[in-house]
Specification:
The complex is a heterodimer of chains A (269) and B (271).
Chain A: E1 11-13, E2 16-21, E3 24-33, E4 36-37, H1 38-42, H2 48-57, H3 63-76, H4 84-94, H5 99-109, H6 117-130, H7 134-142, H8 170-182, H9 187-193, H10 195-202, H11 208-218, H12 223-233, H13 235-248, E5 257-260
Antiparallel strand pairs in A: 2-3, 3-4
Helix pairs in contact in A: 3-8, 3-11, 4-5, 4-13, 5-13, 6-11, 6-12, 7-10, 8-9, 11-12
Chain B: H1 3-10, E1 13-16, E2 19-22, E3 26-29, E4 32-33, H2 43-52, H3 58-69, H4 79-89, H5 94-104, H6 112-130, H7 135-146, H8 163-173, H9 179-193, H10 202-212, H11 217-223, H12 232-241, E5 255-257
Antiparallel strand pairs in B: 2-3, 3-4
Helix pairs in contact in B: 3-8, 4-5, 4-12, 5-12, 6-7, 6-9, 6-10, 6-11, 9-10
The chains are: A mainly alpha (269), B mainly alpha (271).
Chain lengths: 269, 271
């Protein structure tokens, strides 16, 4: 059977070119990412984070940009077992659910407006609108939340800030200091210099998602790209905690106490 | 109370008005025993009860059933359903494929993204008109705000095959003259008369029926979650029965590359 029949339907892409093996149009002989030969030239030479940047931005990062993205990826790699997205993945692991479902659970819970992907998108939109204008930030952070009805609930805190925090946590301070020192763009250094003013305007301390949003913006990612990257970069921690709980088993996993407001049948128990 | 005090107050226990299970004894759902008081409900009725806490009449349930049934297309070409089919083709699990199908059904141009915006538009517009606003102004405002009106127009086709059977059932069940249904068709008439030429789609009509059933936007959004579910198993099953990897196989010739030309890769620069 010939495999060279002209296809009737096409997938359009500006990212990836594949050339077929001479004996099989469904097998790849060479793959090019934004014009670069992936297996012929880059493999063994390029780091994962540089490839990640190239995939998303279409151009190679500078060395400083790659270092910044790699450092951010390290900061985000494990939200820790207290984080709701990791908690969700562990709920999958403890019952022996499929690996994919554990990651899907982590993505679903980690997609939201509290420390999740949606928060990154909204925070990056704020960076794009306010830039390094403190007055613009103060106006923005003073605005009531958008109440347009959509699949997303109304935002309950300024994106990028911790609604339950008392002060800027040590890891947030450490991450901001480290990334601001590395950034060759404007936002992280400005955030570091103006942190107190922004936290006062937001009435909450900065969160790690707020640092990540500034870093993604400094790296030139769009809010949609930042949201995707944030979802991706937090997955390794969710995966290992899911695997770990599978080994520990359900007897060592919290089930929590229930208090029902309306509890027929309680009497006599 | 806020900050860590608020978190501490909620630690280590679940305080709920919705329900819970007392393993080995009983299950309470919104104040009723699932196995002795709610056990005669059909599943869809129970699902609507868990969302709203309300009971629905048999005529209302016929309409609600149709909202799910009429959207359960066994067509693996449709984007969300294709995911269940691709999962079958790659020999993934049915549960993963069908779950991902439903997750993706929360889309901007169809499914849940449209559902919640459509019911919100109809409910807002009806309220505004009851307060004296003109329909034309409400439509204009929505078009300006959203560059379209959820529930009107359709991505792949101008006609919607679900409208006629839904309206036939609505007439039988006595829901064809509800205020939101009437409003939805008034919106369509306005859009048809203007330059937009949008026709009502099932998302618009279903949302109108949901509003006439007394559902809030969030209740309707949650109720519609399984709307595409009935289409997913056949897509998965058929793909899983075919030789592996044979659902929509793409050759290298199927990819139209529109990016930069081939270039020589250089290691990172220092800056």
């Amino acid at each position: 059977m010939t495999t060279n029949t002209k296809p009737k339907e096409m997938i359009h892409t500006q990212i990836w070119l594949e050339e077929p093996e001479p004996d099989n149009a469904f097998a790849t002989k060479a793959a090019y990412c934004h014009g670069y030969d992936v297996y012929g030239e880059m493999l063994g030479q390029i780091g994962w984070v540089e490839m990640l940047y190239l995939l998303f931005r279409g151009e190679m990062p500078t060395k400083r940009q790659a270092e910044l993205l790699e450092t951010l990826a390290v900061a985000l790699i494990n939200p820790g077992p207290r984080d709701p997205s990791v908690h969700a993945a562990m709920c999958g692991g403890v019952g022996g659910s499929t690996s994919a479902s554990c990651l899907m659970a982590a993505l679903a819970v980690g997609a939201g407006q509290l420390s999740g992907g949606r928060e990154i998108l909204l925070a990056m939109q704020n960076w794009n609108s306010c830039g390094t204008d403190i007055d613009a930030w103060q106006r923005r952070l003073g605005l009531p939340a958008d109440t347009t009805v959509s699949i997303w609930p109304a935002m309950e805190h300024p994106p990028g800030f911790d609604p339950h925090g008392i002060s800027t946590t040590t890891p947030v301070t450490q991450t901001l200091a480290c990334l601001a020192h590395m950034s060759t763009a404007a936002f992280l250094p400005w955030l570091s210099m103006n942190l107190h003013h922004l936290e006062t305007a937001a009435n909450h301390p900065l969160s790690l998602s707020g640092v990540a949003a500034a870093a993604f913006t400094d790296l030139g990612f769009t809010p949609e790209q930042g949201e995707m990257l944030y979802l991706l970069l937090r997955l390794p921690g969710t995966a290992v905690h899911a695997l770990e709980q599978k080994v520990y088993g359900h007897k060592k996993f919290p089930f929590f106490r229930l208090e029902l407001d309306d509890n027929p049948g309680e009497e006599g128990k | 109370m806020n900050g860590p005090e608020l978190l501490q107050k909620h630690a280590d226990h679940l305080k709920s008005r919705m329900g819970g299970c007392f393993l080995g004894d009983r299950v309470i759902s919104r104040g009723y025993n699932l196995h002795t008081e709610l056990n005669t409900m059909d599943w869809m009725e129970y699902y609507a009860f868990t969302i709203t806490g309300r009971r629905f009449t048999p005529q209302q349930l016929r309409i609600m059933n149709a909202l799910w049934l009429y959207t359960s297309y066994p067509d693996a070409r449709i984007w969300n359903l294709r995911i269940a089919a691709l999962a079958g083709s790659t020999r993934s699990t049915g549960n993963l494929g069908m779950s991902a199908s439903l997750a993706v059904s929360e889309a901007a141009i169809y499914g849940r993204g449209i559902d919640i915006r459509a019911i919100d538009f109809l409910q807002r517009t009806l309220k505004e008109m009851e307060n004296g606003a003109e329909l034309a102004d409400c439509i204009q405002k929505e078009l300006k705000r959203s560059r379209g009106i959820a529930g009107f127009g359709r991505p792949l086709s101008s006609a919607d095959e679900r409208i006629a059977p839904t309206m036939a059932l609505a007439r039988e069940a006595g829901f064809d003259q509800g205020p939101h249904v009437k409003l939805a068709f008034a919106v369509e008439n306005h859009l048809q008369a203007g330059r937009w030429r949008f026709r009502i789609n099932a998302g618009g009509l279903f949302a109108a029926l949901g509003a006439d059933l007394g559902l809030t936007a969030q209740e309707y959004y949650l109720f519609m979650f399984p709307a595409f579910l009935g289409g997913t198993p056949p897509c998965y099953i058929e793909s899983a029965e075919r030789p592996e990897g044979t659902l929509f196989p793409l050759s290298c010739h199927h990819i139209r590359y529109e990016g930069p030309p081939k270039r020589t890769w250089q290691p990172l620069s220092e800056l």
